[in-house]
Design a protein that fits this description.
seven-stranded mixed β-sheet, L-amino peptidase D-ALA esterase/amidase, 2 domains, alpha+beta, 393 residues, 28% strand, Ubiquitin-like (UB roll), 11 helices
Length: 393
Protein backbone atom coordinates (compact mmCIF):
# COMPACT_ATOMS: atom_id res chain seq x y z
CA UNK A 1 0.00 0.00 0.00
CA UNK A 2 1.30 3.41 -0.96
CA UNK A 3 1.39 6.29 1.48
CA UNK A 4 -0.65 9.47 0.94
CA UNK A 5 1.06 12.02 -1.30
CA UNK A 6 3.83 13.89 0.44
CA UNK A 7 5.05 11.05 2.66
CA UNK A 8 7.89 8.52 2.50
CA UNK A 9 8.72 5.66 4.87
CA UNK A 10 11.24 2.92 5.52
CA UNK A 11 12.04 0.20 8.02
CA UNK A 12 15.49 -1.20 8.82
CA UNK A 13 17.38 -3.10 11.51
CA UNK A 14 19.45 -1.00 13.91
CA UNK A 15 20.44 -3.90 16.17
CA UNK A 16 18.43 -2.97 19.26
CA UNK A 17 16.53 -6.24 18.85
CA UNK A 18 18.37 -9.48 18.22
CA UNK A 19 16.90 -10.40 14.84
CA UNK A 20 13.93 -8.31 13.72
CA UNK A 21 13.81 -4.85 12.08
CA UNK A 22 13.54 -2.26 14.83
CA UNK A 23 13.80 1.20 13.28
CA UNK A 24 11.22 3.05 11.19
CA UNK A 25 11.65 6.43 9.53
CA UNK A 26 8.80 8.60 8.25
CA UNK A 27 9.41 11.75 6.25
CA UNK A 28 7.01 14.47 5.14
CA UNK A 29 8.82 15.69 2.02
CA UNK A 30 7.61 19.28 2.25
CA UNK A 31 6.61 19.20 5.89
CA UNK A 32 3.25 18.48 7.47
CA UNK A 33 0.89 20.07 9.93
CA UNK A 34 0.42 17.72 12.85
CA UNK A 35 -1.36 16.94 16.09
CA UNK A 36 -0.69 14.27 18.69
CA UNK A 37 -2.09 12.59 21.77
CA UNK A 38 0.24 11.14 24.39
CA UNK A 39 0.04 8.82 27.37
CA UNK A 40 -1.41 10.11 30.63
CA UNK A 41 0.90 7.88 32.66
CA UNK A 42 2.90 10.02 35.13
CA UNK A 43 6.09 8.15 34.16
CA UNK A 44 6.29 9.59 30.66
CA UNK A 45 9.09 8.22 28.51
CA UNK A 46 11.86 10.50 27.26
CA UNK A 47 10.56 10.56 23.65
CA UNK A 48 7.11 11.57 24.91
CA UNK A 49 8.54 14.43 26.97
CA UNK A 50 10.69 15.57 24.05
CA UNK A 51 7.94 15.14 21.46
CA UNK A 52 5.41 17.19 23.41
CA UNK A 53 7.92 20.03 23.80
CA UNK A 54 9.03 20.01 20.18
CA UNK A 55 5.51 19.84 18.75
CA UNK A 56 4.67 22.94 20.78
CA UNK A 57 7.86 24.73 19.70
CA UNK A 58 7.27 23.97 16.01
CA UNK A 59 3.64 25.08 16.34
CA UNK A 60 2.43 21.79 14.96
CA UNK A 61 4.91 21.28 12.12
CA UNK A 62 6.62 17.93 11.54
CA UNK A 63 9.18 16.93 8.91
CA UNK A 64 10.21 13.49 10.15
CA UNK A 65 9.46 10.77 12.69
CA UNK A 66 12.01 8.26 14.03
CA UNK A 67 10.52 5.20 15.74
CA UNK A 68 12.41 2.38 17.44
CA UNK A 69 11.29 -0.91 18.95
CA UNK A 70 13.08 -2.93 21.61
CA UNK A 71 13.72 -0.13 24.11
CA UNK A 72 11.09 2.20 25.60
CA UNK A 73 13.66 4.66 26.98
CA UNK A 74 11.24 5.25 29.87
CA UNK A 75 12.10 5.96 33.52
CA UNK A 76 15.67 6.70 32.39
CA UNK A 77 16.10 10.26 33.70
CA UNK A 78 18.48 12.72 32.06
CA UNK A 79 20.55 10.03 30.29
CA UNK A 80 17.43 8.82 28.51
CA UNK A 81 16.38 12.34 27.54
CA UNK A 82 19.89 13.06 26.23
CA UNK A 83 19.80 9.86 24.16
CA UNK A 84 16.46 10.83 22.65
CA UNK A 85 17.83 14.28 21.81
CA UNK A 86 20.86 12.77 20.08
CA UNK A 87 18.58 10.66 17.89
CA UNK A 88 16.43 13.67 17.09
CA UNK A 89 19.39 15.92 16.34
CA UNK A 90 21.12 13.24 14.25
CA UNK A 91 18.05 12.69 12.14
CA UNK A 92 17.54 16.44 11.70
CA UNK A 93 21.13 16.91 10.51
CA UNK A 94 20.90 13.93 8.15
CA UNK A 95 17.66 15.16 6.58
CA UNK A 96 18.51 18.87 6.69
CA UNK A 97 15.44 19.88 8.70
CA UNK A 98 14.91 21.82 11.96
CA UNK A 99 15.39 19.57 14.98
CA UNK A 100 12.11 20.66 16.59
CA UNK A 101 10.33 19.26 13.52
CA UNK A 102 11.63 15.72 14.16
CA UNK A 103 9.54 13.52 16.46
CA UNK A 104 11.15 10.51 18.14
CA UNK A 105 9.12 7.61 19.48
CA UNK A 106 10.11 4.41 21.26
CA UNK A 107 8.59 1.16 22.46
CA UNK A 108 9.96 -1.82 24.34
CA UNK A 109 11.36 -2.56 27.78
CA UNK A 110 11.06 0.15 30.46
CA UNK A 111 14.08 1.22 32.50
CA UNK A 112 16.77 0.87 29.83
CA UNK A 113 18.48 3.90 28.28
CA UNK A 114 18.13 4.02 24.52
CA UNK A 115 21.27 2.78 22.68
CA UNK A 116 21.14 5.85 20.48
CA UNK A 117 24.47 5.17 18.76
CA UNK A 118 22.93 2.12 17.06
CA UNK A 119 20.01 4.18 15.82
CA UNK A 120 22.17 7.03 14.57
CA UNK A 121 24.37 4.54 12.73
CA UNK A 122 21.34 3.01 11.01
CA UNK A 123 19.65 6.28 10.02
CA UNK A 124 21.58 6.72 6.73
CA UNK A 125 20.34 3.29 5.59
CA UNK A 126 16.80 4.22 6.65
CA UNK A 127 17.06 7.44 4.63
CA UNK A 128 18.38 5.55 1.60
CA UNK A 129 15.44 3.14 1.70
CA UNK A 130 12.74 5.82 1.98
CA UNK A 131 9.93 5.37 -0.53
CA UNK A 132 6.23 6.03 -1.02
CA UNK A 133 5.73 2.26 -0.77
CA UNK A 134 7.75 1.85 2.44
CA UNK A 135 4.71 1.48 4.70
CA UNK A 136 4.99 -2.29 5.00
CA UNK A 137 8.64 -2.14 6.09
CA UNK A 138 7.95 0.65 8.59
CA UNK A 139 4.95 -1.17 10.07
CA UNK A 140 7.07 -4.29 10.75
CA UNK A 141 9.91 -2.28 12.30
CA UNK A 142 7.84 -0.92 15.21
CA UNK A 143 6.42 -4.23 16.50
CA UNK A 144 7.18 -5.77 19.90
CA UNK A 145 4.92 -8.61 21.08
CA UNK A 146 2.53 -8.03 18.18
CA UNK A 147 1.76 -11.04 16.01
CA UNK A 148 1.83 -8.89 12.90
CA UNK A 149 1.64 -5.34 11.52
CA UNK A 150 -1.47 -3.18 11.79
CA UNK A 151 -2.35 -1.02 8.77
CA UNK A 152 -5.60 0.75 7.89
CA UNK A 153 -6.76 3.17 5.22
CA UNK A 154 -9.83 5.10 4.11
CA UNK A 155 -10.76 7.67 1.47
CA UNK A 156 -12.59 10.98 1.83
CA UNK A 157 -13.80 13.86 -0.31
CA UNK A 158 -13.06 17.52 0.39
CA UNK A 159 -14.11 20.37 -1.88
CA UNK A 160 -14.47 18.01 -4.82
CA UNK A 161 -11.04 16.43 -4.28
CA UNK A 162 -10.55 12.82 -3.24
CA UNK A 163 -7.97 12.28 -0.51
CA UNK A 164 -6.65 9.44 1.63
CA UNK A 165 -5.99 8.63 5.27
CA UNK A 166 -3.46 5.87 5.98
CA UNK A 167 -2.32 4.71 9.39
CA UNK A 168 -0.18 2.04 10.98
CA UNK A 169 0.23 1.05 14.60
CA UNK A 170 1.62 -1.37 17.14
CA UNK A 171 0.07 -2.60 20.35
CA UNK A 172 -0.88 -5.93 21.87
CA UNK A 173 -0.39 -5.62 25.64
CA UNK A 174 -0.77 -2.84 28.21
CA UNK A 175 -3.84 -1.72 26.28
CA UNK A 176 -6.42 0.39 28.09
CA UNK A 177 -8.39 3.65 27.67
CA UNK A 178 -6.25 6.80 27.66
CA UNK A 179 -4.27 4.75 25.17
CA UNK A 180 -1.80 2.06 26.07
CA UNK A 181 1.55 0.57 25.06
CA UNK A 182 0.61 1.58 21.58
CA UNK A 183 2.09 3.74 18.89
CA UNK A 184 0.00 4.93 15.96
CA UNK A 185 1.03 7.11 13.05
CA UNK A 186 -1.68 8.41 10.75
CA UNK A 187 -0.99 10.34 7.55
CA UNK A 188 -3.21 12.20 5.13
CA UNK A 189 -2.73 14.33 2.03
CA UNK A 190 -5.34 16.81 3.29
CA UNK A 191 -4.62 20.47 3.87
CA UNK A 192 -5.55 21.19 7.48
CA UNK A 193 -4.52 23.42 10.35
CA UNK A 194 -2.91 21.90 13.47
CA UNK A 195 -5.90 23.04 15.56
CA UNK A 196 -8.36 21.28 13.27
CA UNK A 197 -6.21 18.13 13.31
CA UNK A 198 -6.10 18.16 17.12
CA UNK A 199 -9.89 18.40 17.34
CA UNK A 200 -10.43 15.68 14.73
CA UNK A 201 -7.86 13.40 16.37
CA UNK A 202 -9.46 13.71 19.80
CA UNK A 203 -12.84 12.85 18.32
CA UNK A 204 -11.42 9.83 16.50
CA UNK A 205 -9.44 8.61 19.51
CA UNK A 206 -12.47 8.78 21.79
CA UNK A 207 -14.25 6.40 19.42
CA UNK A 208 -11.27 4.05 19.01
CA UNK A 209 -8.07 4.06 21.08
CA UNK A 210 -9.90 5.26 24.20
CA UNK A 211 -12.55 2.55 23.86
CA UNK A 212 -10.40 -0.58 24.01
CA UNK A 213 -8.86 -2.69 26.75
CA UNK A 214 -6.67 -5.80 26.74
CA UNK A 215 -5.29 -5.96 30.27
CA UNK A 216 -6.15 -2.75 32.11
CA UNK A 217 -2.63 -1.29 32.00
CA UNK A 218 -1.55 2.00 30.44
CA UNK A 219 2.04 2.41 29.32
CA UNK A 220 4.66 5.15 29.49
CA UNK A 221 5.20 5.69 25.75
CA UNK A 222 1.76 5.91 24.14
CA UNK A 223 1.66 8.22 21.15
CA UNK A 224 -0.82 8.84 18.35
CA UNK A 225 0.49 11.25 15.75
CA UNK A 226 -1.63 12.64 12.90
CA UNK A 227 0.16 14.39 10.01
CA UNK A 228 -1.33 16.24 7.03
CA UNK A 229 0.94 16.98 4.06
CA UNK A 230 -1.43 19.34 2.23
CA UNK A 231 -0.56 17.69 -1.09
CA UNK A 232 -4.26 17.33 -1.92
CA UNK A 233 -4.54 21.08 -2.31
CA UNK A 234 -7.62 23.20 -1.86
CA UNK A 235 -8.57 25.34 1.14
CA UNK A 236 -7.38 24.20 4.54
CA UNK A 237 -9.71 22.41 6.91
CA UNK A 238 -9.83 24.74 9.87
CA UNK A 239 -13.21 25.10 11.59
CA UNK A 240 -14.21 22.40 14.12
CA UNK A 241 -17.19 21.39 11.97
CA UNK A 242 -15.22 21.38 8.69
CA UNK A 243 -14.79 18.29 6.54
CA UNK A 244 -17.19 15.74 8.07
CA UNK A 245 -16.14 13.19 5.45
CA UNK A 246 -12.49 13.55 6.45
CA UNK A 247 -13.35 13.14 10.12
CA UNK A 248 -15.38 10.04 9.25
CA UNK A 249 -12.40 8.57 7.35
CA UNK A 250 -10.00 9.39 10.19
CA UNK A 251 -12.28 7.75 12.75
CA UNK A 252 -12.65 4.72 10.49
CA UNK A 253 -8.88 4.30 10.25
CA UNK A 254 -8.43 4.70 14.01
CA UNK A 255 -11.21 2.19 14.69
CA UNK A 256 -9.63 -0.33 12.33
CA UNK A 257 -6.28 0.05 14.09
CA UNK A 258 -7.94 -0.22 17.51
CA UNK A 259 -9.75 -3.41 16.47
CA UNK A 260 -6.47 -4.91 15.22
CA UNK A 261 -4.80 -4.12 18.55
CA UNK A 262 -7.47 -5.84 20.59
CA UNK A 263 -7.63 -8.81 18.21
CA UNK A 264 -3.85 -9.08 18.54
CA UNK A 265 -3.99 -8.77 22.33
CA UNK A 266 -1.28 -10.91 23.87
CA UNK A 267 -2.59 -14.47 23.77
CA UNK A 268 -6.01 -13.29 22.59
CA UNK A 269 -8.37 -15.58 20.72
CA UNK A 270 -11.59 -13.51 20.83
CA UNK A 271 -12.80 -9.94 21.08
CA UNK A 272 -15.71 -8.83 23.24
CA UNK A 273 -17.71 -6.05 21.59
CA UNK A 274 -19.81 -4.70 24.46
CA UNK A 275 -22.37 -1.95 24.06
CA UNK A 276 -24.34 -0.44 26.92
CA UNK A 277 -27.61 1.24 25.96
CA UNK A 278 -30.47 2.82 27.90
CA UNK A 279 -28.22 4.60 30.41
CA UNK A 280 -29.24 7.76 32.27
CA UNK A 281 -26.08 9.53 31.12
CA UNK A 282 -23.03 9.00 28.93
CA UNK A 283 -20.95 8.69 32.09
CA UNK A 284 -23.15 5.86 33.38
CA UNK A 285 -22.94 4.06 30.05
CA UNK A 286 -19.14 4.42 30.08
CA UNK A 287 -18.92 3.10 33.66
CA UNK A 288 -20.96 0.01 32.88
CA UNK A 289 -19.19 -0.76 29.60
CA UNK A 290 -15.78 -0.21 31.20
CA UNK A 291 -16.58 -2.58 34.08
CA UNK A 292 -17.58 -5.37 31.69
CA UNK A 293 -14.65 -4.83 29.31
CA UNK A 294 -12.06 -4.94 32.09
CA UNK A 295 -13.50 -7.70 34.29
CA UNK A 296 -11.01 -10.59 34.60
CA UNK A 297 -13.93 -12.98 35.16
CA UNK A 298 -15.67 -11.84 31.98
CA UNK A 299 -12.41 -12.00 30.02
CA UNK A 300 -11.56 -15.52 31.20
CA UNK A 301 -15.10 -16.71 30.42
CA UNK A 302 -14.64 -15.22 26.96
CA UNK A 303 -11.40 -17.17 26.56
CA UNK A 304 -13.19 -20.38 27.45
CA UNK A 305 -16.12 -19.66 25.17
CA UNK A 306 -18.46 -19.82 28.17
CA UNK A 307 -21.52 -17.49 27.86
CA UNK A 308 -21.61 -16.88 31.60
CA UNK A 309 -23.84 -13.81 31.50
CA UNK A 310 -23.96 -13.66 35.31
CA UNK A 311 -20.38 -12.34 35.27
CA UNK A 312 -21.39 -9.61 32.83
CA UNK A 313 -24.30 -8.43 34.95
CA UNK A 314 -22.20 -8.64 38.11
CA UNK A 315 -19.67 -6.29 36.51
CA UNK A 316 -22.43 -3.88 35.50
CA UNK A 317 -23.83 -4.04 39.03
CA UNK A 318 -20.57 -2.93 40.64
CA UNK A 319 -19.79 -0.29 38.01
CA UNK A 320 -21.49 2.60 39.80
CA UNK A 321 -23.93 3.19 36.92
CA UNK A 322 -27.45 4.15 38.03
CA UNK A 323 -30.29 1.82 37.02
CA UNK A 324 -33.01 -0.48 38.31
CA UNK A 325 -32.05 -4.13 38.09
CA UNK A 326 -35.69 -4.90 37.20
CA UNK A 327 -35.30 -3.08 33.90
CA UNK A 328 -31.97 -4.50 32.73
CA UNK A 329 -31.83 -6.73 29.66
CA UNK A 330 -28.89 -8.49 28.03
CA UNK A 331 -28.46 -9.73 24.46
CA UNK A 332 -25.78 -11.91 22.96
CA UNK A 333 -25.98 -11.02 19.28
CA UNK A 334 -29.62 -11.68 18.29
CA UNK A 335 -30.15 -13.90 21.34
CA UNK A 336 -31.86 -12.43 24.44
CA UNK A 337 -30.44 -13.97 27.61
CA UNK A 338 -31.95 -11.64 30.24
CA UNK A 339 -35.16 -9.64 30.00
CA UNK A 340 -36.15 -7.07 32.63
CA UNK A 341 -33.78 -8.48 35.22
CA UNK A 342 -34.67 -12.18 34.92
CA UNK A 343 -33.35 -15.02 32.69
CA UNK A 344 -35.07 -15.34 29.31
CA UNK A 345 -35.70 -18.71 27.63
CA UNK A 346 -32.89 -19.65 25.22
CA UNK A 347 -30.86 -22.67 24.18
CA UNK A 348 -27.45 -22.89 25.78
CA UNK A 349 -25.91 -24.29 22.61
CA UNK A 350 -27.03 -21.18 20.71
CA UNK A 351 -25.35 -18.95 23.27
CA UNK A 352 -22.16 -21.05 23.16
CA UNK A 353 -22.05 -20.84 19.38
CA UNK A 354 -22.11 -17.04 19.48
CA UNK A 355 -19.68 -16.79 22.41
CA UNK A 356 -17.09 -18.84 20.53
CA UNK A 357 -16.93 -16.55 17.52
CA UNK A 358 -13.94 -14.31 16.83
CA UNK A 359 -16.01 -11.22 17.68
CA UNK A 360 -18.62 -11.61 20.43
CA UNK A 361 -21.34 -8.91 20.43
CA UNK A 362 -22.95 -8.18 23.82
CA UNK A 363 -25.59 -5.51 24.41
CA UNK A 364 -26.65 -4.53 27.93
CA UNK A 365 -29.76 -2.33 28.09
CA UNK A 366 -30.00 -0.56 31.45
CA UNK A 367 -33.53 0.61 30.79
CA UNK A 368 -32.85 3.94 32.47
CA UNK A 369 -32.41 6.45 29.63
CA UNK A 370 -31.04 6.94 26.12
CA UNK A 371 -27.25 7.23 26.55
CA UNK A 372 -24.92 4.61 25.07
CA UNK A 373 -21.24 3.59 25.12
CA UNK A 374 -19.20 0.82 23.51
CA UNK A 375 -15.91 -0.90 24.31
CA UNK A 376 -13.74 -3.56 22.71
CA UNK A 377 -11.89 -6.02 24.95
CA UNK A 378 -9.88 -9.17 24.36
CA UNK A 379 -10.08 -12.44 26.24
CA UNK A 380 -7.53 -13.35 28.90
CA UNK A 381 -5.91 -16.77 28.79
CA UNK A 382 -2.84 -18.86 29.58
CA UNK A 383 -0.71 -17.40 26.78
CA UNK A 384 -1.01 -13.87 28.18
CA UNK A 385 0.48 -15.01 31.49
CA UNK A 386 3.22 -17.03 29.81
CA UNK A 387 4.23 -14.19 27.52
CA UNK A 388 4.39 -11.53 30.23
CA UNK A 389 6.00 -13.77 32.84
CA UNK A 390 9.24 -13.78 30.87
CA UNK A 391 8.93 -10.62 28.76
CA UNK A 392 12.49 -9.51 29.49
CA UNK A 393 14.08 -12.94 29.14
Amino acid sequence: MRLPKGFLASGVRAGIRKKRPDLALLVAEKGANAAALFTKNRFQAAPVVLGKRDLARSRGRVRAVVVNAGCANAVTGKPGLDAARRVRDGAAALLGVPKEEVIVSSTGVIGVVLPDAKIRAALPDAKYRLSASGLEAASHAILTTDVGPKIAHAAFTWMGRRGRVVGFAKGAGMIHPNMATMLAFVMTDAEATPAFLKSALREAADASFHAISVDGDTSTNDTVLLMASGALGGPAMSAPDDAPDFRRALTEVCRQLAWLMVRDGEGATRVLDVTVTGARSRADAERAAHAVATSPLVKTALHGGDPNWGRILAAVGRSGARFSEKRVSLRLGPLTLVKNGIPAPYREKDAVRIFRKERVPVVVDLGAGVATASKLSSDLGHDYVSLNADYRS
